[in-house]
Design goal:
- The complex is a heterodimer of chains A (about 425) and B (about 300).
- With about 425 residues, chain A is an alpha+beta fold.
- Chain A has 13 helices and ten strands.
- Chain A has two domains: about 180 residues, no CATH class; about 170 residues, no CATH class.
- A six-stranded mixed β-barrel of chain A has the order 2-3-8-5-7-6.
- About 0% of the residues of chain A have low confidence.
- Chain B has one domain: 3-Layer(aba) Sandwich (Rossmann fold).
- Helices cover about 40% and strands about 20% of the residues of chain B.
- Chain B has nine helices and ten strands.
- In chain B, α4 packs across α5, α6 packs parallel to α7 and α7 crosses α9.
- The relative contact order of chain B is 0.14.
- The chains are: A alpha+beta (about 425), B alpha/beta (about 300).
- Chains A and B meet through α1, α10, α11 and α13 of A and α3 and α4 of B.
């Protein structure tokens, strides 16, 4: 008989013994075990909830891009952000430093296969209506061109979108903004002021319900005006944060965006102070931001997992102290240090894995509850399940190791002498 | 194996054990030379603090000697890793303690089966084997009792069963009757001498001089040394005929070796002690049977209730 085969066989049987032993000892202290499991459950649940909500948010943007049938590209002002921390700290409306100009826009209009192009010039400011009941709140005003409706699939509830011949002081409102300003979505013909300039509402958008999207604009809460009017707020120099482009077919988007990059490099004299993103990549900066946020919140949630782990260690140390004599007996009848270590590691793993499974389920439940109020639904993914259970496993090993080693190091003679 | 060559189970050469360092240095064992052969029943006597228990702990690989050599079954075990020592404890050594040391949260049969766990036996096999051994100790109807439901004598018999379950080559007993009354003590001693008669090697540490009568060899220790050893006067125990509970059948060459061993006349003192003890043993055997019957009756009564 081969040595390794019997060793293996022996290990399996011992594992079964340890497992049985672990459950027996854990069940003999039900309340204590339950509380320890609860610690891990809460930690894993918060990690699971955050991760699956993040996945949901990422998927939301992804779906929008997919909906636009993949023939949309964007150019953003500023160099591509590779540092995640920077993406968090950078302010959203840095129009004073926008690097895209009207010259760039003109250059891009010459691109082959271009179907539509729309600049986005974001100004965060307060809007005031003549309605006496309205309060002035900070809102986003977007200077753009008529093509935007085509690229971003914006539809109108009433009125019309701006066009080439529409008045310079015409504005299209998001539905929510219309309600906020005038108390009704039927606001056509009404006027409001932006920095003392009067604008007339010519159209109200349908509700999009997409606060998170690749244009980084919540259209429900913004006012769209022409680029010309927007320029009047910034000394007639366009500060374009983003240019949205649409190709005539999805297969042409990549070559078109390459051509756009070359054209911009010429107008910018070789300086790469802009970011060119096509189809799937559009979703990334937003989801990158979410990932960074998620990573931070996961770390915070992870702290509760650490607390759960400390609970495991605490209870395992108590358990080792209580069973000192048993350890001595086991050693005297032939258990080696390794056997004792495994016995205790398996016991702490039994706690942490149970906590992990319960925590994953609880986390999903919490995520779906939160998803009812949030604009996106949480995603079920194997990744999140893997991370949740992996973290639980890791917690069990890390926090179970010390008590297990402590148990194994006990001198059998001293242990046997101990009385309770 | 070396065991078949010359029957020697344990060989100690100048074994020393030191506790403490420097000024606090203290030798519990100051050089023990000892050879124990298969089938011997050795009683180690001596006053408190003479190093008996330390010696037994070292023999049971629960402790390591500071100096000297320890051959178990012809193999040096002093320098082995603790993992290998544990494997030897599991295979070759059965230990019986003064305070029984059963695991309180396990039933009798689980306690007896515990050593087999570390030999890698499946649960069914473990319990079957444990049940067999318990049957040999007339404890079958106590299998699913918890340790605290047993009397002292029964507990110790369970502990003996546990020590035997993995068919060890030596059985070490540290004051096995120290916590028992005289009646239970004699029952335990009867069990041990039965085991001895079946060919098991037993090393027992005791304070009680009466118990040495059951032993085939008595060693007196004092101050970390062996003071006297009856093996110089007395031949090793009677040849082994019965099948040991350990399951190994005595081999033919062992018998011939036993008979060829130098047979010296036992001293008067030993003769006298055996004379006086024989009737006692016989009467004790009877009591044991009677006691068992009574106990079984009691159990049945309880069951009926």
């Amino acid at each position: 008989m081969s040595e390794s085969e019997t060793e293996n066989n022996m290990r399996n049987l011992l594992f079964a013994h340890h497992l049985e032993n672990a459950f027996e000892s854990l069940l003999s202290h039900r309340l204590r075990t339950l509380l320890t499991v609860l610690g891990v459950t809460i930690g894993v649940a918060s990690v699971t909830a955050i991760l699956s909500l993040t996945e949901g948010a990422t998927k939301l943007v992804q779906d929008q891009v997919d909906q636009l049938s993949g023939n949309v590209g964007v150019i953003r002002s500023g160099a591509e952000i590779t540092n995640e921390a920077e993406s968090l700290t950078r302010t959203q409306t840095n129009y004073a430093t926008a690097t895209l100009t009207e010259d760039d826009l003109a250059a891009l209009e010459e691109l082959p296969h271009l179907e539509a192009i729309a600049p986005l010039m974001n100004i965060r400011t307060t809007l005031k209506s003549n309605d006496p009941g309205s309060t002035s709140k900070s809102h986003l005003v977007v200077g753009t061109t008529p093509d935007l409706a085509k690229i971003n699939n914006l539809t109108l509830g009433s009125g019309q979108f701006m066009d080439e011949i529409s008045n310079a002081n015409a504005a299209v409102l998001g539905e929510q903004l219309s309600v906020d300003l005038f108390g009704t979505e039927q606001s056509i013909g009404k006027t409001f002021t932006i920095r003392d300039q009067t604008f007339t509402v010519i159209g109200v958008l349908n509700m999009t319900n997409q606060p998170v999207n690749f244009s980084s604009i919540d259209f429900d809460n913004s006012a769209l005006i022409s680029l010309e009017s927007a320029k009047s707020f910034t000394q007639n120099i366009a500060q374009i944060q983003q240019i949205n482009l649409r190709a005539d077919s999805p297969s042409n988007i990549t070559p078109m965006m390459q051509a756009a990059e070359e054209a911009l490099l010429t107008t910018h004299k070789g300086e790469r102070d802009f970011t060119v993103l096509a189809s799937d990549a559009i979703a990334e900066p937003t989801s990158q931001l979410f990932r960074t946020l998620a990573a931070l919140s996961t770390i915070i949630a992870g702290i509760s997992l650490v607390v759960g782990g400390i609970g495991i260690m605490n209870i395992m140390l108590v358990s080792v102290a209580e069973r000192t004599r048993e350890i001595g007996i086991r050693k005297s009848v032939g258990a080696s240090n390794r056997h004792i270590i495994w016995q205790y590691i398996i016991e702490s793993l039994a706690i942490s894995i149970t906590g992990g499974v319960l925590g994953y389920l609880l986390g999903l439940f919490a995520a779906f509850l939160l998803g009812m109020v949030l604009p996106f639904t949480p995603q079920l993914s194997f990744e999140v399940a893997g991370i949740a259970l992996g973290l639980a496993l890791l917690t069990g090993v890390i926090f179970g190791l010390y008590p297990a080693i402590k148990a194994a190091r006990k001198d059998p003679i001293m242990s046997l002498r101990q009385t309770h | 194996m070396a065991q078949t060559k010359n029957n020697t189970v344990i060989q100690l050469k100048d074994l020393k054990k030191r506790f403490g360092i420097g000024d606090a240095e203290h030798y519990a064992l100051r050089g023990i030379d000892l050879t124990i052969k298969k089938g011997e029943f050795v009683a180690i006597m001596g006053p408190s603090g003479c190093g008996k228990t330390t010696l037994l702990n070292i023999l049971g690989l629960l402790d390591r000697a500071s100096d000297g050599e320890y051959l178990l079954d012809g193999r040096s075990v002093e320098d082995l890793s603790s993992h290998k020592q544990a494997a030897i404890r599991s295979k070759n050594i059965g230990i019986i303690f003064q305070n029984f040391n059963l695991v309180p949260r396990m039933s009798v049969i689980e306690n007896v089966a515990l050593p087999l766990t570390y030999k890698g036996m499946s649960k069914t096999k473990r319990l079957t084997r444990a049940s067999e051994v318990l049957k040999a100790f007339h404890l079958s109807e106590r299998e699913y009792y918890m340790p605290w439901q047993l009397s002292g004598g029964q507990t110790q018999r369970v502990a003996i069963a546990r020590a035997l379950v993995n068919e060890p080559s030596i059985i070490l007993a540290d004051e096995p009757t120290g916590n028992l009354d005289s009646k239970a003590s004699h029952i335990i001693m009867e069990e041990l001498s039965d085991l001895h008669a079946q060919g098991n090697t037993i090393i027992m540490v005791t304070h009680n001089p009466n118990l040495t009568a059951y032993a085939s060899r008595v060693i007196h220790m004092a101050d970390g040394r062996i003071e006297s050893d009856t093996s110089q006067h007395k031949a090793p125990s009677a040849p082994v005929y019965g099948r040991p509970l350990g399951g190994k059948k005595p081999k033919a060459d062992e018998e011939t070796e036993d008979s060829s061993a130098p047979t010296t006349q036992p001293t008067d003192a030993v003769l006298e002690s055996t004379k006086s003890i024989q009737p006692v043993r016989r009467s004790m055997a009877k009591t044991r049977v009677r006691v068992k019957k009574v106990k079984i009756k009691n159990v049945r009564k309880r069951d009926r209730k």
